[in-house]
Amino acid sequence: MSAHAKTRIVGSPVPRKEGVDKLLGRARYVDDIEREGMWHGATVRSAIPRGLIRSIGFDRNIDWSEFAIVTAADIPGHNHIQLIFADQPCLADGKVNHCDEAVILLAHPNKHKVREAAAAVRIEYEPMPPVFTIEESERQDVIVWGADNVLKSFLLEKGDVDSAWVGAAHIVEGEYRTGAQEHLYIENNGVIAEYSADGGVTIWGSLQCPYYVHKSLLAVFDLPEDKVRVIQTETGGAFGGKEDYPSILAAHAALLAMKSGHPVKMVYDRMEDLAATTKRHPSRVRHRTALDGNGKLLAMDIEIATDGGAYSTLSSTVLSRATLHSPGPYVCPNVRVRSRAWATNIAPYGAFRGFGAPQAVFAIERHMDEIAAAIGIDPIELRRRNFLHDGDTTATEQVMREPVILDQLLDRALAESGYNGKRARFAKENKTNPVKRGMGIAAFYHGSGFTGSGERNLNSLAGIDVTADGKVRVLVSSTEFGQGTNTVLTQIAAEAIGIDYEDVMMAPPDTGIVPNSGPTVASRTSMVVGRLIERACLQLVALLRKNVGLGETFSREEFFAASERYRATKGEVVSLCRYEAPPGIFWDDQKYRGEAYPAYAWSIHVAQVAVDTVTYSAEVEDFWAAQEAGRVLNPVLAGGQIEGGVAQGIGYALYEKVLLQDGHMVNNQMTNYIMPTAEDVPPIHVYFVEIPFSHGGYGAKGIGELPHDGPAPAILNAIRDAVGISFTSIPLLPEDLFAKLAVRTGVEEVAAV
Amino acid sequence: MNAGWPAIEFVVNGETRNVHVPPMKRLLDVLREDLHLTGSKEGCGEGECGSCSVRMNGELVNSCLVPVLQAQGACIQTVEGLACDGELHPLQQAFLHCGGAQCGICTPGMLMAAAQLLANNPRPTVAEIREGLAGNLCRCTGFKRIFDSVLSAAAQTEIPMASETHAR
Ligand code: FES
Ligand code: FES
Question: Residues A367-379: pLDDT tens digits?
Fold first, then answer.
């Protein structure tokens, strides 16, 4: 099997495929592109969280005849942007459900004039009572969505939780909370749209999923498939934030293009992007856990609540992943997870790297340390006694058929970090030092690919072709936004055919050219799409052998010569493959039972933290990440994924707070929404243990989201180790540290200033 | 367009340029819109992210905060002026091989900040690199491979960093 074979290109640190263009400053991001006669669009947004639109007034000092003006009435098809349910309007029609909801669109040849004009539109409302928190939504005094404010709920049950409490030696309860998090890609959302009555809609944009945008536009414009074309431009970061939102933005720009008769560019500025686009779902997770006298888990009763915001968007699938990651990498005979996503009048929350798992992992991994403290066991030992191993079953009764090497990863992470020695040393030093140091860990998995039956439903198609000028092109709608899609897929193709890395390029990410290989999400690209490319290449080689006499062994010249013979006699040289599920897998969507994911990546994080008890600041001084994510296709890119994810996880834990006032984000600038800088991110030590996965591209599993799951619990566990106080909520800012630490040390309130 | 405005003249990447634009127009917009040098990026428009960083008269500036008026007579280097005769600059080489660029949107500004750092301090320590790049945000890399890139470029080069005025 290829996964175990020696490879030339897969596994080597070839430079990023589009790297030179990026380094020369000639990569074309959407705002770098101009179209002939292009106008600029702007959005008039709701100023209130919930209410009826009474009237819309246009300032008389502006000559509105110069502008294209679009309202919901101009939409030729359906006024909704559908991801899973069709509840979110493309433009508010008579009613708004969150602040910064799009109501009216304007376009004008001058970018500054259109922004001024947008500010001069007055909307009068009849306010309705809003709901801002999970708790308010749960109370159901005010119903803002459906019959009961519940966007989605799941129940996962294994064994019999209710009868497990009686015989338990210990029962430990805890509640854990996580806040919203902004993606803060450095390139804001942006698109350019063109429209013609004959040609339909064409979109160029910064986006992750060309076919999601394609599908949304078909509905909004009521057009047949071949009349909508979506082209991804170079994309300056996404992290999930360009999974769903570009569908709305593309529809807006296309409506303006239709109305104005011009190409229209819409590129958000930072304040608009922060206020109006999606973020990570805030969560509250409650654990009730029973253990026997040896510290073995007997029962886990878990209740998850997320804030989904005003429309359902991707909340159901985020909740699903949170549900499936909530029991952690442990064996437990009795598990119950009850989870709900609640509607509020906040801009909808959406996809963000980890997709529900960071919230769930924060809760279980903080909770494990609380259990350890409560029953008097070392937190490392508690985890070891309960780790999943090969052959064990998970909470969904999935049998772990592939190797699970948590103990080995843990040993490695502890040894590399000097965990035990440091813990002992810090305990001694902390007695006299106002800077208290601690060590913390987190153990976790991340399921690769879509949940349950997701990959089968997607039915992805991908492949390669050989062009007349002698290049192999990878044909996928999987997109590059920094994570390395272009590089790893071309590595796989070059390896599988037996040609050079330079012989392979990506076909343009254009729905008019490439097939639908599924969305670029869920850590699925290397594993699922990579495997499709590997198969398509082997299929092409077999085809050339059969039809035009390509030899058993061949040089790259012979391969391209054979391709030309094929083209001359048979036509296009192309090979496509469709997804095939690994054999023997089973998933019950109703009972949430079976193979939740085709594969899991496993990881241990260790954080070393210093808490300054004078300034109440917590700093991550050093960080170690050990993981098994299948075969590493490119060590430089894979390392970069782990480091970047850890840095975002550090931000999630200690820096990044979304402040809302009456449902509107008030710190929607880079000056007051703070991410870690070059001076804040600690050294990050990354270790891979490679076990090729037989159904992934050259043995790869998912890697992109895994590193975001662990830092927050590892860091808060380290803070507990340092100061002996439990913090159960993130982001944990100096004022939060002060609130608890000052009480204990008897510091007066004035010390805060 | 805007021909009524008095000329503002400066040198960009070794070439003298004249623009007739409103004097308060941001240097970033002049570079991108009037001179079609779209390498410099806008991430925030308020001096926080550094993706618009260019070198001006031997200093690193956020071009989103500089009215073009201030650039009168200045000598400016943008990312487009780093490579020489099609040869990647040592920093660009190092970023390519060390993985210093992922999505690439912070990269033009990061390269200029790194070039500025090495011009002032040809053999920086990691702590000095952290400080030198603190005004440039990268959301993708976690910075580690950017530090590696700068270290590697510093180790390889005899500091050809006075390239601001190099002939084209
Ligand atoms: S765009 Fe100039 S600093 Fe962010
Ligand atoms: S490489 Fe994406 S922001 Fe730096």
Answer: 999 999 999 999 9
Give chain A's length: 753
Centre of ligand 2 to C-alpha A294, Å, is 47
Q: Which of A23, A34, A480, A646 to mutate to test binding with chain B, by most B CBs within 10 Å of its CB?
A: A23
Nearest in space to A102 (alpha carbons), one of A210, A255, A218, A233: A255
Residue B153: strand, helix, or coil = helix
* Residue type at position A588: D
CATH number belonging to domain B90-167: 1.10.150.120
ipTM of the complex: 0.96
- Asked if CATH classification 3.30.365.10 holds for the domain at A402-447+597-753, the reply, yes or no, is yes
d(CA A201, CA A748): 63
Asked if residue B49 has its Cβ within 6 Å of ligand 1, the reply is yes
Q: In angstroms, what CA-CA distances link A591 with A155, A329, A397, A588, A670?
A: 7, 21, 11, 6, 44
Q: Exposure of B75 by Cβ count < 10 A (0-12 exposed, 13-18 middle, 19+ buried)? A: middle
Please name the residue that has the structure tokens 């044909």: A475
Dist. CA B102 → ligand 2 center (Å):
5
The secondary structure of A266-294 as a DSSP string is EE--HHHHHHHS--PPPEEEEEEEEE-TT
Per residue in B104-149, pLDDT tens? 999 999 999 999 999 999 999 999 999 999 999 999 999 999 999 9
Question: Is A188 in a helix, a strand, or coil?
Answer: coil
Would you state the structure tokens that stand for residue A359, as one six-digit string? 């919230």
Is domain A130-181+279-388 annotated with CATH 3.30.365.10? yes
Q: Give me the CATH topology for the region A33-128+183-276.
A: Aldehyde Oxidoreductase; domain 4 (3.30.365)
Alpha-carbon distance A427 to A433, whole Å? 10
A343: β partners? A309
pLDDT digits (tens, 9 = 90+) for A149-197: 999 999 999 999 999 999 999 999 999 999 999 999 999 999 999 999 9
What SS3 class is residue B129? helix
Give the model's pLDDT for residue A1: 37
Q: How far is the CA of A238 from the centre of ligand 2 (A)?
A: 10
Contact between chains at A636 and B145 (C-beta distance less than 8 A): yes
Residue B85: pLDDT over 90: no
CA distance, residue A170 to nearest chain B CA (Å): 41
pTM: 0.96
Phi-psi region of A49 (alpha: psi -120 to 50; beta: other; left: phi over 0): alpha
Asked if residues B57 and B144 have their Cβ atoms less than 8 Å apart, the reply is no
Arithmetic mean of pLDDT, A308-312: 98
The answer as to CATH 3.10.20.30 being correct for domain B7-81 is: yes
